[in-house]
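Feature request disguised as a bug: please show the residue count (486) next to Beta-amyrin 28-oxidase in the output. Example input:
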Amino acid sequence: METTSFCISFFSLLLIIFFLFYYYCYRGQHSIDGKEGAPAPPGRWGWPVVGESLEFLSNGWKGEPEKFIFSRMSKYSSSVFKTYLLGEATVVMCGSDSNKFLFSNENKLVQAWWPSSVDKIFPFSKLQTSSNEEAIKMRKMLPNFLKPEALRQYVGIMDHITGKHFASEWENKDAVHVFPLTKKLTFWLACRIFINVEDPGEVAGLAKHFDVLATGILSVPIDLPGTPFRRAIKASNQLRKELIKIINQRKIDCSRLTKASEDILWHMLNTADDNGTYMNELDIADKILGLLVGGHDTASSACAFIVKYLIDLPHVYHGVYQEQMEIAELKGQGELLNWDDVQKMKYSWCVACEVLRLVPPLQGTFRQALTDFTFNGFSIPKGWKLYWNAHSTHKNPEFFSEPEIFDPSRFEGRGPAPYTFVPFGGGPRMCPGKEYARLEILVFIHHLVKRFRWEKLIADEEIVVNPFPVPANGLPVRLFPHNHRI
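Example output, currently without the count:
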């Protein structure tokens, strides 16, 4: 009898807790629906507390992230629907009009948003700023470092590093796992171009901490000993120490560096803000760390999937091979690629863009509403999160006919309509590293196809999205070297 009473009391308590969570985290959201006299977007909140986060994430784990988007676009609205993701009331924005609205209203109606856990891994504590504020500063600085004029000098460096990478990691191998190698290459390129670190041993030392950091960013934010999140915080602190050593040494060396030795760190050390103030070492270390994170996983994912599609489509491989060999045959022995060579890689870039359309490295990002506003007749309350995603246009037959078909010709001539192809975002928040990514992807393609043909070792390898798309088994391939001299 006592056991029965205890069970009843226990389950009653659970029901009360469940109801309170439901009311606070779920029903409470309805109290702010319909501001400005407009209805809330259609949709559902999902389960109390977790909302629809599990379905949102599990679709990515299964390699079909667009399923969450398109099922709700079909059921609720083709342009906007509400849900509850990652503990936040969220409006998912879909289609080219939504992309244009969000990108055009950056820091007016919306601003970029990241979970608060990001600030623990990237603590900008010295200046008491947040990751959002730091991102705004970076976006003002980066165009000067990553505009085409500045990047011209990096083409030869990228070619040199990529050649060394293929010589040490691909050549004389019967088979390789592609994705770990593309990660290694893009990190090596970032270290060389951002901070002038080229020695493989030194790069590997930084990569060791960086891999722990990257894993922790995607983990559950539980700050307890032994958790991936705690390890990521420690790795972040260790990387800062290493970067500050490099920065201090660079300050000593700056007076001896020539124009040809300039890299992004050199520019940061020698560029003052509007008030004539130069950044301190910790500030620069934070920004370099952010650049390494931002420029690493996206490019490595794109390069890996280019390898996959070139295997699957021999006629596309042939077109890329012909273009790249025409360039290679005009180069002298040991002569590096230059800016003009990259501009000739038009078909290769169309192929890369089609890969980015089908498997966008950046699935989407979050914004936060700065004020109450309406969109397409629906009310968006201040403080709500907004999620834009690439799939709602990339795989939508309204914008790309037969969207599952691989067709590089979509990007010839004027290309897709504005705000439909958005692997790098758009408008004022267009990724400032777009041109940098284009260069490293094209240089990678050049070295890949002039050296090898290849075949997959796993016929139907799954794609996992968490949050970047990656081949589930690292994309193992068997290599067949070309016989001609390169």
